[in-house]
Specification:
- The protein is an alpha+beta fold.
- Helix 5 packs parallel to helix 7.
- The chain is elongated, with a radius of gyration of 31 Å.
- The C terminus is likely disordered.
């Protein structure tokens, strides 16, 4: 096999990799231009390394060993590039997508090799078939699967260790059958069947994984709706309290009238003015006191302030937020309601003085939300995310997934019985890429 044939095969392979890797980064670390440059640089590096390894190995060893060495170098270089350089996700999470792509790429190679009955790198027929299959799968992925997969990938932030382990195992078994089949001196139907079976098994496993992810996403959305329902119920309770206050005001009005009438009989007009001024001030605070000018945020804060009052929790809010179209009301309610829901639940788990402090302000193009609450001293963290022993942390997942839509940063910490949640949003709606 000529060096030119090897080079042509490697270059064709790298074209596929470059296109695919630029399309399968749900959480990129850099902008598109820099991401593309890193992928292209990795492809050039791999071309040099693989050409050298394959040329040397083909001169001293068999074709399968040469292919294996190039394959191993490809896996190592592209894996490091994807998991640590272009993806901002946790490396374990990134590893799942990388092995998923590698399995798909290997399935295409196996199908083409079985049809062409050859593994020759420089064969134009083989690379034409690989190009056609890659293009067909890529179009299907971009049109029907990419947006949904990206959404699931971003919203589901736990469980990737298990599915990554399953993905690696499937990829290893698939590659093992493929390399062993290449080592045979002649084609055997049994190993052809095993190859196809391994491909079918891998596809079935990924179907099950994505079904699991879709179910998890659906469950998360249902729990998020339940959390919003709790907020709406708290809002209704707040309105009921306002109605009760209004009835009490109407009932007490006759007593206030008697006081004013008594002052009038004594011609104490200054006392009348003073009394009416105090009365108006208290009534205004009762019905018109707000936390901020943003209606969505004010409604959430009012509802949870009422809940804190009934639960014996002291709440202090320092909020400077105007009406803002850059962060949708739905997303703002989701983040605030879940933060305050978790804060109230955290306060109820401690016997110490229960207190919630929340600060919201706009700093330039950033929206900063900081909430502090008293909490138990045994809070568990996993990868910087609090985990509750008794219930699923759907509130935390909702905060993380909603903040991700705005390129936000979320930080959780706990020290000396105080839990702190800090959310920084880019204060602009996310754009589809």
């Amino acid at each position: 096999m000529s060096t030119i044939g090897i080079l042509i095969g490697i270059l064709a392979n790298n074209i596929f990799h470059t296109i695919w890797f630029c399309c399968i980064v749900p959480e990129p670390k850099y902008d598109r231009k820099r991401t593309r440059l890193i992928v292209i640089a990795t492809s050039i590096l791999y071309t040099c390394v693989a050409t050298f390894l394959c040329t040397v190995s083909f001169q001293n060893f068999s074709v399968p060993i040469g292919l294996f060495m190039g394959y191993a170098a490809e896996l190592l270089l592209y894996g490091i590039m994807y998991c640590f350089f272009i993806s901002a996700s946790n490396p374990v999470k990134s590893l799942f997508l990388f092995t998923e792509y590698s399995s798909m790429h290997t399935i295409i190679i196996i199908i083409v090799s079985l049809i062409a009955d050859a593994y020759t790198l420089g064969n134009p027929f083989i690379w034409t078939m690989r190009a056609v299959l890659n293009l067909a799968v890529l179009i299907f992925y971009l049109l029907f699967f990419k947006e949904k997969m990206f959404r699931m990938y971003k919203e589901i932030r736990s469980g990737y260790r298990m599915i990554s382990a399953i993905s690696i195992m499937c990829y290893f078994i698939q590659s093992l059958f493929w390399f062993y089949n290449m080592k045979l001196n002649r084609r055997e139907l049994f190993f052809d069947v095993l190859l196809l079976a391994s491909c079918g098994f891998t596809v079935a496993v990924y179907v099950m994984i994505f079904w699991y992810m879709a179910q998890s996403e659906r469950t998360n959305r249902m729990k998020q709706l339940q959390a919003n329902e709790k907020f709406l119920q708290a809002q209704v309770d707040s309105y009921k309290k306002m109605g009760e206050s209004a009835r009490q005001t109407r009932h007490d009005f006759k007593h206030h009238s008697m006081v004013v009438a008594e002052y009038a009989k004594n011609k104490d007009y200054q006392a009348i003015l003073s009394y009416l001024s105090e009365y108006n001030e208290k009534e205004y605070k009762k019905y018109h006191e707000t936390f901020c000018k943003n209606h969505a945020a004010d409604t959430v804060l009012s509802a949870y302030a009422s809940r804190c009052e009934h639960s014996g929790i002291e709440i202090n809010a320092d909020v400077w937020l105007e009406e803002n179209e850059r962060v949708s009301d739905y997303d703002l309610v989701t983040i605030l309601a879940n933060i305050l829901e978790n804060a109230v639940n955290g306060c109820m788990e401690t016997e110490e003085k229960r207190r919630v402090e929340i600060t919201i302000e706009e700093k330039g193009s950033k929206l900063v939300i900081i909430c502090k609450n008293t909490c138990a001293s045994d809070i568990m963290f996993e990868n910087g995310i609090p985990r509750n022993r008794e219930r699923e942390g759907i509130g935390v997942e909702s905060i993380l997934s909603t903040a991700a839509k705005y390129g936000g940063v979320v930080d959780f910490s706990a020290s000396d019985g105080i839990f702190v949640c800090q959310v920084i949003l880019s204060n602009r709606k996310s754009k589809k890429k």
